[in-house]
């Protein structure tokens, strides 16, 4: 914006002000659209493995939404342990109030061994 203002020798002050306001508005719009849909991911150790079949996906999503407390965008089934009746599920969701979440990136050491 400073370069445009510095090179605008033959432009009136009103045109320059309008160009600056338009520039600021476009940047504000892009920032608002970018941060509107911040998504995050959680890895969940899920014990109700009877719900991981494709036929019961809606029940799985409803149960996860009820337990986690937010609207889920995507669910991906990972490792299934039939001996312990658990499955790792990757849950992608929209972050409430556009708050950044750093705890979701932390994983316990040796969590996925075996």
Characterization of this structure:
The protein folds into two domains: 2-36; 39-105. It is built from three helices and three strands. With 114 residues, the chain is α+β, with helices and mostly antiparallel strands. The termini are far apart. Strands 1-3-2 form a three-stranded antiparallel sheet, covered by helices on one side. It is rod-shaped, with a radius of gyration of 24 Å. 37% of the residues lie in helices and 24% in strands.
Provide a brief overview of the structure.
The protein is an alpha+beta fold and 114 residues long. It has 3 helices and 3 strands.
What is the topology?
Elements: H1 2-7, H2 13-36, E1 39-46, H3 57-68, E2 72-81, E3 86-94
Antiparallel strand pairs: 1-3, 2-3
